[in-house]
Structures are given as C-alpha cells and as structure tokens.
C-alpha cells in the first residue's frame, strides 16, 4: 500500500458555538478516488475548505492535522499555501462563480491559472486553455475562449471551472459537487476526464457528491459523513455491498433505481442533522437507537471498513 498523499487527523472546525466538523479523520492515497457523501449540512464542503486553508470567517477555530506530502498544511503561511493550491492541489468549488471573476474572459482566467504556476508564453497558455475547454465539452472552444463568465450557461461555467482545475495536472483534485448541475452526458464526460487525470498523472481525487450513482461509478473508497463526523468509511464494495451504519442504509435505500431519474439532492431521511452535542449525532433519527447511543461511538472496524455505531454485530444488516 503506498503512503497516503493526504492524511487528515482529528480535524475540527468551529464557528462561534457551532461545531461544523467534529474530529474528522481520513486519508487519500496517490491515484485513489475517494467519494465523500452525506446529506446537506453534514460538513462536506467546510471540511475540504478547512483542508485547503480557505476558511475566512472571522473567529473560526480550526484544529487537527492535515498532512500533505509530509507537510502539515494547517501550519503553513498563506503564501506557502497559495503555492500548493492550484498547482499540487486543485479545488472545484460547489458554486462555480466563486472561482470565476466576472470581469475577465474565461480563457484569460484559465491561461492566468496556468501561467501562475508554469513558465509558458501567453500564446501557449491560451492554446492550452482552448484545448482544455474542448476537453470539458465546450463547443467551438476557439471562439468561446474569449467569452465572459456571464455569457456562459451555468453548466458551461461549471465545465470552465473544471478545465481550470485540471490545467495544472494537480496531484490531488478536490471536487465539490462537480457534476450536479450538468446533464447526464456531460456528467459522464467529466467523470471520464477525472479518470484520465488519474490514469495519465496518477492524481488522487476527492469527490464530494449527493449522487450515490456517481460514487458507485468512480470511487475506490467511500467516506460517509454525518453531523461533521465520519460515520462510515470503506472501499466502494464494502460500503455498497455490506454497509454497516444505519445512516448509510438510509442513503442507499434512497438511491433511485437503475434507469430511474437521478436525484440532485439526496432524498432526506426523516428529521434533520442533529447539532453535534452529546452522543451519537444520528441517534434522534435512527430507527435502531438504544441506551448506548447516549455516548459518541468511535470509528472502528477491520480490513479498512470502519464505522461509528454501537449496534451489536447481529443487528448490522440492512
Ligand atoms: N462560514 C461559516 N460560518 C458558519 N457556519 C458555517 C460556515 N460554513 C458552513 N457552516 C455551517 O457548517 C455546516 C456544514 O456546512 P457544509 O457547507 O460543509 O455542508 P455540506 O455538507 O457541504 O452541505 P451541502 O451538501 O448542502 O453542500 C452547516 O450547518 C453550515 O451552515
Ligand atoms: Mg457543500
């Protein structure tokens, strides 16, 4: 087993009195695709923004360790972190407008991203931008390269942002709902691009998504989050074939049938994600909760299949 490329240990993120990420640990090996799933508000985006040093909210408290290629990213200076972002680690944000500036053309922004990290001529960077726009499925990229973000549709903007993230062949790509706004055909193209990034450059991908179908297609490993914690972690096979946590059972039961429409949002399990306080964060919504759930269950297990639940072994079937 190769050494992890990214190893996150006991990440905690607090905003005022609210704990958004509560002791999250996970790792990603080179070339691995980790699918991160969990319903709205479970802390998926915030934890990845924390990993990248992109939480700007005044008063936010962040602790834990985020070791990437031997360095703890939480201890780096802003300038050191900027050098890593975009070149070694790229992020595709949930909202494409966060990554695009309205006043510059799409092509200029992709070319600048390339030139910020590589010594290439303007011309060469522009040509690369055109090629990348073509690869993410933008029609007539030699013309579209000069368009402004507002001249693109939402799905096209999303693809432009993906092109920007791929432009430097990052060792790690963190993609937050990259395909949610796209139609099924474009979605398939984007998943292909991610597979190619891995095949050609050995890149690892962390893919946040609500779509269990996407996870089942692309992920090697799956991390299920609930209430700012990891509640289950394992290989795709382990999580899909022998899921252990009642929350994961709920997620899998809510997956639309084969050939059915794809959900944009996971249909919800009754109740709302509990504010993390005492006990198992899922207990109020769990059909199986019992006395033991008043304490927080640790994430434990064998053969790389971990879960945080007190249910005894004989009750661990869906
Ligand atoms: N800057 C912030 N200040 C205060 N609270 C925040 C901040 N960012 C996120 N949160 C809170 O942290 C929790 C987790 O948010 P996050 O965006 O990570 O959810 P998510 O799992 O990505 O959800 P979605 O699937 O809807 O994108 C939410 O309750 C959110 O309101
Ligand atoms: Mg999010």
UniProtKB/TrEMBL annotation:
<dbReference type="InterPro" id="IPR017871">
    <property type="entry name" value="ABC_transporter-like_CS"/>
</dbReference>
<dbReference type="InterPro" id="IPR027417">
    <property type="entry name" value="P-loop_NTPase"/>
</dbReference>
<keyword id="KW-0813">Transport</keyword>
<dbReference type="InterPro" id="IPR050388">
    <property type="entry name" value="ABC_Ni/Peptide_Import"/>
</dbReference>
<keyword id="KW-0547">Nucleotide-binding</keyword>
<comment type="similarity">
    <text>Belongs to the ABC transporter superfamily.</text>
</comment>
<dbReference type="Pfam" id="PF00005">
    <property type="entry name" value="ABC_tran"/>
</dbReference>
<keyword id="KW-0067">ATP-binding</keyword>
<dbReference type="GO" id="GO:0005524">
    <property type="term" value="F:ATP binding"/>
</dbReference>
<dbReference type="InterPro" id="IPR003593">
    <property type="entry name" value="AAA+_ATPase"/>
</dbReference>
<feature type="domain" description="ABC transporter">
    <location>
        <begin position="6"/>
        <end position="252"/>
    </location>
</feature>
<dbReference type="InterPro" id="IPR003439">
    <property type="entry name" value="ABC_transporter-like_ATP-bd"/>
</dbReference>
<protein>
    <submittedName>
        <fullName>ABC transporter ATP-binding protein</fullName>
    </submittedName>
</protein>
<dbReference type="InterPro" id="IPR013563">
    <property type="entry name" value="Oligopep_ABC_C"/>
</dbReference>
<dbReference type="Pfam" id="PF08352">
    <property type="entry name" value="oligo_HPY"/>
</dbReference>
<keyword id="KW-0472">Membrane</keyword>
<keyword id="KW-1003">Cell membrane</keyword>
């Amino acid at each position: 087993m190769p050494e992890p490329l990214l190893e996150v240990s006991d990440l905690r993120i607090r905003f005022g009195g609210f704990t958004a990420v509560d002791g999250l640990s996970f790792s990603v090996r080179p070339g691995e695709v980790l699918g991160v799933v969990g319903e709205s508000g479970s802390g998926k985006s915030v934890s990845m923004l924390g990993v990248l040093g992109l939480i700007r909210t005044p008063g936010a408290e962040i602790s834990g360790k985020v070791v990437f290629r031997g360095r703890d990213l939480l201890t780096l200076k802003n300038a050191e972190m900027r050098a890593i972002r975009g070149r070694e680690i790229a992020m595709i944000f949930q909202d494409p407008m966060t990554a695009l500036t309205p006043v510059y053309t799409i092509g200029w922004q992709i070319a600048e991203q390339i030139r910020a990290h590589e010594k290439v001529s303007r011309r060469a960077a522009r040509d690369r931008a055109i090629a990348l726009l073509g690869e993410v499925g933008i029609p007539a990229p030699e013309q579209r390269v000069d368009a402004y973000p507002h001249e693109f549709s939402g799905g096209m903007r999303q693809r432009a942002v993906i092109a920007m993230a791929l432009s430097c062949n990052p060792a790690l790509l963190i993609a937050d709902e990259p395909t949610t706004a796209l139609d099924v055909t474009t979605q398939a193209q984007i998943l292909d691009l991610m597979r190619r990034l891995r095949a050609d450059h050995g890149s690892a991908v962390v893919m946040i998504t609500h779509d269990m179908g996407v996870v089942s297609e692309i992920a090697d490993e799956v991390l299920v989050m609930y209430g700012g914690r990891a509640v289950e972690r394992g290989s795709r096979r382990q999580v899909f074939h022998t899921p252990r946590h009642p929350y994961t059972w709920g997620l899998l039961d809510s997956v639309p049938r084969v050939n059915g429409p794809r959900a944009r949002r996971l249909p919800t399990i009754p109740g709302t994600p509990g504010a993390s306080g005492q006990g198992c964060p899922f207990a109020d919504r769990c059909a199986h909760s019992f006395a033991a759930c008043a304490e927080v269950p640790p994430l434990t297990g064998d053969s790389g299949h971990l879960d945080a639940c007190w249910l005894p072994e004989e009750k661990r079937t869906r």
